[in-house]
Design goal:
D-Maltodextrin-Binding Protein, domain 2; single chain; two-stranded antiparallel sheet; 13 strands; Arc Repressor Mutant, subunit A; rod-shaped; about 300 residues; alpha/beta; nine-stranded mixed β-sheet
């Protein structure tokens, strides 16, 4: 039996001295209230009301039980109130700074349609890991190697000039002794300043004979993009980022690079809840795709070959 509903009917009828009025106050019918009180009496083994008069009168046993029934009803109401507050409490989620404002807005809106009040907090890979470790957020999208990832995002090089070919090879950026023009640089944004991205491209830089200064870790995405827009430099980024910035994007010729993302949460239940409800919308926000897409200003949408 539903002890809480039965106690609620018992308290309501007792307070109003009528099954009809008490049932209405408890937002149920008189017959339902009567059945609930009768079920409670059977459960407790004694009558709660005298039924010899027109108005229900508490028995001595009913008088003894009434304070406890009130307490149970109050506790149930407090539980329901706290559950509602918990459902409305924002889920703070640490996300990469590579997520655009538009995609974050769609993420929040889609989460709301799934019954999740999402509050994104942008941070670098190191900041996101620390936020979830310190439980300052309930979940975080972490940067991991692609073979450990839930979501992967192919990386390539983007610039203001159309390279005229389907891939960009780092060896073509090598500067000759007679070349008077400034060496073209590759800018690594903070999101990709992680070993599984930074180290392979650094080794490739050395293998093809680029100068050390031709690979630069930027202090921020805005600064890196500004350098690319001002010069012939290139930005290491995803196709989605390049399209948003109006840059021509191509995969790296000698090396397959990708961001890897996994989800960490304060509890395993929280992690499972986020993945169950937000897997697809998080993937879109992070810029995942089945294959790298060659893009330029306006985006031609052709697949890299």
């Amino acid at each position: 039996m539903d002890v809480v509903s039965a106690c609620r009917a018992f308290v309501s009828v007792s307070d109003r001295g009528s099954f009809t009025v008490g049932a209405a106050a408890a937002r149920t019918s008189q017959s339902v209230a009567s059945r609930r009180v009768a079920a409670l009496e059977r459960h407790l083994g004694e009558q709660l009301f005298e039924r010899t008069s027109r108005r229900p009168t508490l028995t001595p046993f009913g008088q003894d039980m009434l304070p406890f029934a009130r307490r149970l009803v109050r506790l149930a109401e407090s539980l329901e109130h706290e559950a509602e507050r918990a459902r409305r409490r924002p889920l703070r989620l640490a996300v990469p700074g590579t997520c655009s404002t538009g995609e974050l807005a769609y993420l929040v809106a889609d989460a709301r349609s799934q019954g999740v009040a999402l509050e994104p907090q942008v941070g670098t890979p190191m900041e996101r890991a620390e936020l979830v470790r310190a439980q300052e957020v309930r979940a975080a999208v972490l940067a991991v190697p692609p073979d450990e990832a839930i979501w992967t995002v192919p990386l390539g090089l983007a610039g203001t000039r159309d390279p005229g070919r389907r891939r960009v090879y780092l060896e073509t950026l090598r500067v000759g002794r007679a070349d008077a023009s400034p060496p073209r640089r590759i800018w690594i944004q903070p999101e990709d300043d992680v070993p599984h991205v930074r180290d392979p491209i650094t080794r490739l830089r050395d293998a093809v004979g680029l100068r050390p200064a031709q690979l630069v870790v930027a202090g921020g995405l805005t600064a890196a993009v500004a350098e690319v827009l001002y010069s012939s430099d290139l930005l290491l980024c995803s196709a989605a980022q390049a399209e948003e910035l109006g840059l021509h994007w191509r995969p790296v010729g000698e090396l397959a690079l990708a961001r890897g993302f996994a989800l960490s949460a304060v509890t395993e239940g929280e992690r499972a809840r986020v993945l169950e409800r937000l897997d697809d919308v998080l993937a879109r926000c992070l810029g995942t795709g089945p294959d790298p897409v060659v893009v330029g200003p306006g985006g031609d949408g052709s697949r890299a070959g």
